[in-house]
Specification:
Elements: H1 2-21, E1 25-28, E2 30-34, E3 51-58, E4 62-69, H2 73-77, E5 83-91, E6 112-122, E7 127-128, E8 138-150, E9 156-158, E10 176-182, H3 183-186, E11 193-200, E12 214-217
Parallel strand pairs: 1-12
Antiparallel strand pairs: 2-3, 3-4, 4-10, 5-6, 5-11, 6-7, 6-8, 8-9, 11-12
The structure holds calcium ion (3 copies).
Length: 219
């Protein structure tokens, strides 16, 4: 009897292992990812930008990213600091043998990283996409992104220009931060599958901040 039970347990574990190995969410053209609310660290007196949903949508020319926050973006930005809300890492050839390995991520093979940020425009014409200007009134909030390419290991180089932050984004409405990254900047072709993972920047669960990977076939 004891021997039989052991056998049953071994078979059960083998089934579990093989199921786990193929567990990657597959999606076509678009995917919506949920993130917990209330799982962020504040930064000084700035509330942690708490992401609750990320929608990745492809339209044949752009990867459109919409980040939904737990509260209106104004709550996190007005009188507080600008900054990135998520990172997206992309294995654009769906090949783990090519590309780099992000710091604190256990899998290699990523070609690009997109950082999606929220910026503040001030009444004196100043702009902050990280940190803040002191003693100046904020008059507008807008999204932006930075695109980086993995060069070797965890090293990256920026592909997007290190200026024109506003030209790459759009005004922030309500709780959504939206950007569009052209396929052309990442060498993407319509119809190809890309492996990606999203990380909430203010996440307080160190090393668990990446949401499960998705294999997305782009439009
Ligand atoms: Ca969250
Ligand atoms: Ca790759
Ligand atoms: Ca999270």
């Amino acid at each position: 009897m004891k021997k039989l039970m052991c056998l049953g347990l071994t078979i059960g574990m083998a089934v579990f292992t093989s199921t786990f190995a193929v567990q990657i969410q597959k999606a076509t053209h678009t995917v919506e990812l949920e993130d917990a609310a209330g799982d962020v660290n504040d930064s000084g007196d700035s509330p942690g930008k708490d992401v609750v949903k990320v929608i990745l949508d492809t339209d044949g020319e752009n990867l459109n990213i919409a980040v939904v926050l737990a509260k209106e973006a104004k709550f996190y930005l007005e009188g507080h600091m600008a900054g990135d809300v998520i990172d997206v890492i992309l294995d654009t050839d769906n090949d783990q043998a090519t590309g780099g390995k992000p710091f604190f991520y256990d899998k290699p093979g990523f070609e690009y990283q997109i950082q999606v940020g929220a910026c503040i425009e001030y009444e004196n014409g100043g702009i902050a996409c990280s940190g803040a200007l002191r003693d100046v009134k904020a008059v507008n909030f807008f999204s932006t992104y930075a695109l980086h390419r993995f060069t070797e290991g965890s090293n990256t180089e920026q592909v997007s220009e290190s200026f024109n932050w506003k030209a790459r984004g759009r005004d922030i409405q309500g709780d959504r931060i939206e950007v569009s990254v052209p396929y052309a900047q990442m060498g993407l072709q319509a119809g190809q599958p890309i492996r990606l993972a999203v990380k909430e920047r203010a996440d307080s669960t160190f090393k668990k901040e990446y949401l499960p990977e998705v294999l997305l076939t782009i439009k």
